[in-house]
Amino acid sequence: MIKTGWKKSEDGRDPVMPIYEYEHVETPCPLGRVFELRQTLAEEILSRCPACGAAVKKVISRTNVSTPKTNSELRDLGFTKLVRRDNGVYENVTARNGDSRYMVSGKPETVPNIKKTVSD
């Protein structure tokens, strides 16, 4: 990834900046047909590749929108959700058939059976 037009903040961390995707219009260069570039919002959209100078166009990328999942959706996706109920006691709100509803510290028989959800 090529990083241009930005500096680290005073505490040494990278500032939050959008990552844009560009696609070569014709023949790709070593960056690939599509490449990513970190730019500030104030920077102009590229019309030429910074590596080879060939024509490029900005690509509209898919975004990821995370939505809250219900306990049953989490279970269907293969996740286990434990909610603390007391000191050393957790409720398995995504328990499957045969799983203990509560997981108790020091009682290994109450640990969810991962082999039911994970296969090789």
List keywords for this structure.
single chain; 120 residues; mainly beta; 2 domains
Count of discrete alpha- or pi-helical segments spanning 4 or more residues? 1
Count of the separate structural domains:
2
Secondary-structure element order, N to C: EEEEHEEE
Unreliably modeled segments: 1-6
Quote the beta fraction: 15-25%
Shape: elongated
- Largest sheet entry: 4 strands, mixed
Strand order of the largest sheet: 1-3-2-4
- Rg over C-alpha atoms, rounded to the nearest angstrom: 24 Å
DSSP helix fraction? under 10%
**Total beta strand runs:** 7
The average pLDDT score comes to 82
Secondary-structure-based class equals: mainly beta
Instruction: Compute the separation of the termini in Å.
Output: 34 Å
Word description of this protein:
The structure is a single chain. 5% of the residues lie in helices and 24% in strands. It is mainly β and 120 residues long. It folds into two domains: 46 residues, no CATH class; 46 residues, no CATH class. It has a four-stranded mixed β-sheet, with no helix packed on it. The protein has a three-stranded antiparallel β-sheet with strand order 5-6-7, with no helix packed on it. Strand 5 and strand 6 form a beta hairpin. The longest helix is centred in the middle third of the chain and has 6 residues. The N terminus is likely disordered.
